[in-house]
Design brief:
single chain, about 250 residues, elongated
């Protein structure tokens, strides 16, 4: 009997250690994880899940459908039922009410002997990834537009750094993209744009939604050609990302 009790105590300790390991693992990863049984009742969840569902420890054993989530148009309970019936995992992007985006996955949850014990949800924050992809797409579209315009154009960010410039800008004023993009507009070329009055005008465009129309600037081109440049500028706002930029157009006289 003593040997049996000792073996039983050892297995209980092993089980406790395993449960502690699982709890620590779930609490220290940045992926929201939720385990449901075959009746879609909550079995276990990670700390990150409390940001997505209004979960507390006493919710274990309750149906997921009873818990309010922070997702927009939440249909995850219905999708979990489909995963249970078909055993086919589901993956899709989800938006929360505070405009955070997650990649959500629902997969069958199996025991070590391959018996179906429910489903497991995982949620990975992809907000920055989507924002970077969106910004890259916007840059590509802006680049295509700028490249099709004949007059010199320059796009600046909120810090007056050059985001892009048209081929005609390089053709008229010289320089190369690698010497221009990412640098302050006032430092490129021979610093011909570093004019206090012009800087003051440009720096009012974004905060006050001002425009510049027909600002005259004299410029000495090669071969002793002095010409007048008329600058026009206005604010650009992306409806999708909310990013503010400045578009500068130059008319050479």
């Amino acid at each position: 009997m003593l040997i049996v009790n000792a073996e039983l105590q050892e297995k209980v300790e092993q089980l406790d250690n395993m449960q502690n390991d699982i709890k620590n693992l779930l609490d220290n990863i940045n992926v929201g994880t939720l385990f449901l049984d075959e009746n879609l009742r909550i079995r276990r969840f990670s700390r990150e899940m409390t940001k997505l569902y209004r979960l507390i420890d006493s919710d274990i054993g309750r149906p997921l459908g009873d818990i309010k989530s922070n997702f927009v148009n939440d249909t995850l309970t219905s999708e979990a039922k489909i995963v249970l019936d078909t055993l086919v995992p589901v993956e899709r992007e989800l938006q929360t009410t505070d405009n955070t985006w997650f990649l959500g996955r629902i997969q069958p949850f199996r025991s070590l002997d391959n018996l179906l014990h429910g489903v497991v949800f995982t949620f990975t924050d992809i907000t920055k990834q989507l924002a970077d992809e969106l910004l890259q797409k916007e840059r590509e579209i802006a680049e295509e537009i700028v490249n099709t315009v004949w007059e010199p154009l320059v796009v600046l960010n909120s810090d007056c750094m050059v985001v892009s410039a048209s081929p005609s800008f390089y053709r008229e004023f010289g320089g190369k993209p690698e010497e221009t993009v990412g640098r302050s507009f006032y430092q490129i070329g021979n610093r011909q744009w570093d004019v206090p009055e012009l800087k003051k005008l440009i720096e009012t465009i974004l905060p006050f939604n001002k425009t510049i129309e027909g600002y005259e600037l004299e410029y000495d081109f090669p071969v002793n050609r002095r010409r007048t440049i008329l600058l026009n500028a206005r604010r650009l706002v992306s409806k999708r990302s909310g990013i503010h930029s400045i578009l500068l157009a130059m008319d050479l006289k």
